[in-house]
Amino acid sequence: MKEEKYAKISVISLALAIGIVWGGFAVLACWFSALEWGVPFVKTMGGMYVGYAPSFWSGIISGIWAFIDGFVGGFIIGFLYNFFRKRR
User: What's the pLDDT tens digit per position in 63-80?
Assistant: First the structure.
């Protein structure tokens, strides 16, 4: 039987990609909520990220928090993928 091979993921690249996407989404959601779009979502996110409110600077600060959150989450996902890939 032929042995399957899986590619190794670049943990930092995955972490950066997820952090940028999640941070950008958080900024846009915050700014759009200033136009009264997605206000319930922003209230929910306000429970997770300090200072998440519908304003320009709150969007920037929340985007930084979300980037850090996405980076850490992406790093953990990439690390676990590479770890379990070797165990098969």
Answer: 999 999 999 999 999 999
Residue 88 CB: number of other CB atoms within 10 A?
8
List the structure tokens of 51: 């200072």
Distance CA 26, CA 14 (A): 18
Phi, psi torsion values for 78, nearest 5 degrees: -65, -40
Closest C-alpha to 18, from 59, 87, 79 = 79
Cβ atoms of residues 26 and 20 within 8 Å: no
State how far the Cα of 21 lies from the Cα of 2, in Å rounded to an integer.
37
Spatial separation of the C-alpha atoms in residues 5 and 15, rounded to whole Å: 23
More confident residue, 23 or 55: 23
In this prediction the pTM is: 0.81
Alpha-carbon span 34 to 62, nearest angstrom:
14
